Amino acid sequence: MSISRRKFLGWFGGGLSAAAVSAADTAMAGGNHHFKGHPDTMGVLHDISRCIGCRKCEEACNRVNDLPKPEKAFDDLSVLNQKRRTHANAYTVVNRFDIDSKPVFVKKQCNHCMEPACASACFVKAFQKTPNGPVAYDESVCVGCRYCMIACPFNIPAYEYDDAFSPAVTKCTLCAPRIQKGQLPGCVESCPKEALIYGNRKQLIKIARERINKYPNRYIDHIYGEHEMGGTSWLYISNVDFSKVGMREDLGITPAPQLTSGPLAAVPIVVGLWPVLLTGIYAISQRKDKVAAEEQADAVASAKAEADEVMKKQIANVKKQAAKEKEAAIKKEVKIALEAAAKEAEEKNAETPEKKEE
Amino acid sequence: MELRSRISLRPLITPFNIMLGIIIAMGCIITILRFTGGLAAVTHLDDNNPWGIWIGFDLLCGVALAAGGYTTSAACYIFGLKRFHSAVRPAILTAFLGYALVVLALHYDVGRPWRLPFPIFWQQGTTSLLFEVGLCVFLYLSVLFIEFTPAAFEWLGFTKLRTFIVKLTLVLTILGVILSTLHQSSLGALYTIVPSKLHPLWYSAYLPVYFFVSSIFAGLSMVIFEGSLAHKYLHHKMDETHQKEAYGIVLGFGKAASFIMAGYVAIKVIGISIDNNWHYLFTDYGAWFLLELIGFVALPSFVYAIGVREKNIRLIQWTSLWTVLGIVLNRFNVSLIAFNWQLPSVERYFPGWMEIAISLFIVAIGIVAYRLATNYLPILHEHPDYCHQAH
Amino acid sequence: MESIFYTLQDFMTHSKGITYLIMGGILIFMPLYWLFLTDRDEKKETY
Lengths: 358, 391, 47
Hints:
Mean pLDDT of chain B: 94
Low-confidence stretches of chain B: none
Oligomer: heterotrimer
Shape of chain B: globular
Helix content of chain C: 55-70%
Radius of gyration of chain B: 21 Å
Strand content of chain B: under 5%
Helix content of chain B: 55-70%
Number of strands of chain B: 0
Distance between the termini of chain B: 17 Å
Largest interface: A-B, 61 and 59 residues
Number of helices of chain B: 13
Number of helices of chain C: 1
Shape of chain C: rod-shaped
Order of helices and strands of chain B: HHHHHHHHHHHHH
Largest sheet of chain B: none
Strand content of chain C: under 5%
Structural class of chain B: mainly alpha
Structural class of chain C: mainly alpha
Low-confidence stretches of chain C: none
Mean pLDDT of chain C: 85
Number of strands of chain C: 0
Distance between the termini of chain C: 54 Å
């Protein structure tokens, strides 16, 4: 019984996804979970050693995406004298690097990362890593904030700065519509040297590994995109150092969403704890004010009470004094009155004996 | 409690006002260019440098310098420091105008400003720190607006409404501190996604903490700085309380800022040490980093301290301007100078004159709005009808 | 709602989405809980 390659790949994919499900089920916690990506992700392998810089891929991309024709035609190889980057409506470019006086050509386009920085950065979810592989851009929600362009470590997304009314972000789409129809991406189909192969990402890594092992003197022992930034769907093998052909080797393997997961995790903690902290500070400062006010009131009251006491004592003294003086005055008056009465009585006595003698 | 004349007796045609008028007129023209010709017609933005001074200055500096609102109201209502009360309304006004102008500036920068409500109301990119910034700025602008309304209601005579909102002061203040913590830090966190593009001396996992802490002393310094300008040019609108409390506010805020800046220097040094980035200090960018940290944070912190110790108000006021410039330098460094540091100089960004003109235009609108508000509303003085009601 | 997340990005989109909703709930719940907690305190004099 012969098994068609398609069926085999289908079973293979199915088995892998089953394994992924069981693996995922056993370790769903965010803390230590390792995400393996969609099991059937497709990709492209770019063999830099095979590229001749003919720019047919650029021409095909322009054609299948209905992009406006550029100033210089695609068969004009003089453009390779300048280093170019992707641009609004130029989803891919080929650059030439002269290394040891030999030209090396590299094609650059969106790498369709396994954990895209653009998707992580987009605040309106305009980017989505589709299960098939392409990182899709939804122009219908894009606000044009361009944070995706800041975030992309490969500097791929471009912007239609000239457009005042409907500017969009532009980048390679991995020809998702063509793939749905069973066709190859435009660039892959047009490459005359098979420097581009489209297939299942895991398969492509195997093929790349095999090629490196078979020709160890030809290839650098590294598959670019296998782990960079958490892995990309577009993979590269090369006959020269990647850093010499404009590909950064210092990006690390941490995927972009993980870089921001720290700050993002702190956000809800602030919301949970700040109300408690701030209300607590408020309550403590209110209490301090209250206690201070009470202590002040106490101090005022006791000072007042003391003053009252002193006042009372003084009044009592004054009263005593007044009473004494009054008594003394009364005694004096009584004495005077008694003396006056005694004197009167004496005078009367002196009168009466004269009347008796007659 | 005498009510000062509502209409300013100062002449309208002054050299400064003429300059403002020119800036505003130019801004209107450039606005038309921007919305008919697109960003390319007005800016030097390109594919390698998608964010320029409209983000680096208008958004990042604008938000940092409007932080006086939450710091002052927290000091007065949460920490209970009532002697700062007269600084609250001016600070809230500045913050409200500041954030409103940030939103205005965003309308110039994003490609489709009419879609700005999308991330909040249509499709939420919850993994994005920019979503976090947008949501919090939106909510905080609402909070600031509500906090601002009592001043307007007093002027309009809506007593019941005014009293109702005043009752909400504490809740609004706490919510304001929460939202401010979140968006000030998230603005820094925006750059955590690009370690490959931001120079190691500025890139750190602590970026959110750096931005939040620096926003505190940015706000405190702006209150001192604006207070000194108000004292000079809006003196006739200030009542006795405002004039009396000003001295204590300058001293108190200067003291707080000094100490917080010292803490900030400490955590910046920790950031270098924890990533073992000492060797970068000996490069050109290292010299620039030290200029920012020592020349525009450590030194002003020390001079603030001298001003506080000697009760030298002038010195503290000049230092507040110095500190504000330091904040601007830091935000510029993170977003424009240390960002894309590895690109060859031909590919680096420098703003176009029209970009700068729009930024000045937005500042000019802020100044005009601030002056209008302080002239008509009880911001720098208490409204005679509400003098004795606690707020 | 997915039962399995293949990418960290998808996982975070899901988890952060729920987290933001919970944050909104907390901001509503806490003031109400504070009112409940301080309901029977001695009233502070306000003029």
